[in-house]
Amino acid sequence: MVKIIAEIGSVHDGSFGNACKLIEAAAEVGADVVKFQTHIANEETLKNAPSPSYFTDEDRYSYFERTSFSLNQWAKLKEIANKNNLSFLSSPFSIKAVDILESINIDAFKIASGEVTNLPLIEKIASTKKEVYISTGMSNFKEIDQALNILKSAPYLTVMQCSSIYPCPPEKVGINVIELMKSKYSNIAKIGFSDHTLGFAAGISAIVKGAEVIEKHLTLSNMMYGSDAANAMEVDKFKSFVKMIRETSIIINSKIDKNDISDYKEMKKIFEKSIVASRNIPIGKIIEIEDLNFKKPGTGISASKYKSVINQKVKKQIQVDQLLSWDDLE
User: Fold this and answer.
1) How does pLDDT run across 114-141, given as a tens digit for each residue?
2) In total, how many domains does the chain have?
3) Do 62 and 178 lie in a common domain?
4) Are residues 37 and 126 in the same domain?
5) Considering the entire predicted model, what is its pTM?
6) Under 8 Å between Cβ of 158 and 215
7) Which 3 state secondary structure label does DSSP give 111?
């Protein structure tokens, strides 16, 4: 079954109450995993580090300080997730953040796209021997290979195609990369897709191409504050997204034997055609094509057998529109 990750990111905006509600929403939409980001401002960024173009309302250092959670709060969030039958996942952005997440016995780690070249962080995560997901939104294969060389001993590893564009336009999704990743990494990892588009099509396309894990941002409302909410999917739409992903997975993995038509036995009787008399046919007449018509139901001699009926001699009187039977013929 495809694993679905509901990415909370920073949608909670530092509100512990909202974070709890978002976990409950992740369970409600049918996700398998809920994911957060663990930021410690002074451990991961300089105060004068530039912000992305979509982050304009406050500097990120202040934002990370304002929106971070305490150790006890992280522990409580994990507890709530697990009570809702969700695995609890977070992306640490510093070595200290790894320590915090390890202290609450986090279920798995996610390496964010911007951390793929942060090899000290990756080495720290690898040392935990936990399950690891790695996004690749701004890395080439050389950088990905370098990271995976460290992570290859992880008990469970998922490499995720991703494009770090918010929102991601259809032409930048890179679904073709999933097949490349499968050919390169399937011996050490599952392949997934981190979806930054606003719609449904990219995630479904990823499943068709063989992705086994789908991640998408979840929000309670697109009007919530912060850089993530506007590009995330609201609860009702996310439910539909999950339903589509599940159905797509069933479709792909359900093989049909086209020669086994037993499921259609009754439908064939209703919709297919039988051979009927186009006119009254007397005893002794040799059947011609003009004597025949082809009508529902499909309970008599199949229309496909009409050549076997032509030139047969009639041994019983046949009325117009009567279904022909082999018993009527010599």
Assistant:
1) 999 999 999 999 999 999 999 999 999 9
2) 2
3) yes
4) yes
5) 0.90
6) no
7) strand
